[in-house]
Amino acid sequence: MKTIFLFRRPLVASSLVVVTVVLGIALAGPLLAPHDPLAINQNAVNQASSTQYLLGTDEFGRDILSRLLVGIRPTILVAVISTIIAAIGGTACGIVGAYSRPVFAFFVMRGVDIMLSFPAILLALLAVGFWRSGVVSLSVVIGIIFIPQFARVAQSATLQVIRQEFVEAEHAMGARYLRVVLRAILPNILSPLVVQATLTIAAAILLESGLSFLGLGIVPPEPSWGQMIGTARGYLSQNPMYVVWPSVCLAVTVLAINVLGDALRDHLDPRLRENP
């Protein structure tokens, strides 16, 4: 019997553990935090690691560990919601771009190409500048920004599927457009979309962290990893570990999600599977 692909690749198994732990912390972070992440202690400003504060304190004497445990929740929430928005909107655009009237498909995909021509961070900066910062606005903005990536993946997969005999059989039976999409096309393009979703979550985490780093993301005093990194820049000489902890957490989380995405792609695509 073949071994499950996760157990044949220790790096993938380790990444799965990391992602599971991060999701668990995102759900139960406030319960795990040893201190109030918003509580100010002027007598413990920029302290190093100690028995009371395991990872030290920030510029207001707040516990860095508690803020790390709580700060992952808004980041993960934004990443997941924005990925769902991007997946729904991008899949719809991609299917329309491959399986609709040529004129309509042309305008849809040219709109996708125009969005792809701009850097994601630039579009995000332009959008959040007109909206109030917060989880909801960030989720919508980032979700719209990543729609073109899903649209391209969905269009490419749909173009392959509509040439298959089972789609032609649906047409021969007089099936309507919506039935063909829901019964024949959508179930057969889910694999590349799932892979794209995992990669988009990692990209959304980085984009949200970048916006928070610039002060345009999660609103203080609510913590987020990107916001903590941005603030910690000004205290490198006083407390260098202040910037290290959120940076390491962010890097490890994004790396783990990307590794899982690559492994999922290899597993779902027979051409990329490793030989047993």
UniProtKB/TrEMBL annotation:
Residues 72-261 form the ABC transmembrane type-1 domain. InterPro entries: BP-dependent_transpt_permease (IPR050366), MetI-like (IPR000515), MetI-like_sf (IPR035906). CDD domains: TM_PBP2. The keyword Ion transport does not apply. The chain crosses the membrane at residues 76-99, 111-130, 136-154, 185-207, 243-264. It comes from the Bacteria. It is found in: Cell membrane. Keywords: Cell membrane, Membrane, Transmembrane, Transmembrane helix, Transport. It holds the Pfam family BPD_transp_1. It is a multi-pass membrane protein. Its main location: membrane. Belongs to the binding-protein-dependent transport system permease family. PANTHER family: OLIGOPEPTIDE TRANSPORT SYSTEM PERMEASE PROTEIN APPC (PTHR43386), PEPTIDE ABC TRANSPORTER PERMEASE PROTEIN (PTHR43386:SF25). This is ABC transporter permease. It comes from Rhizobium mesosinicum.
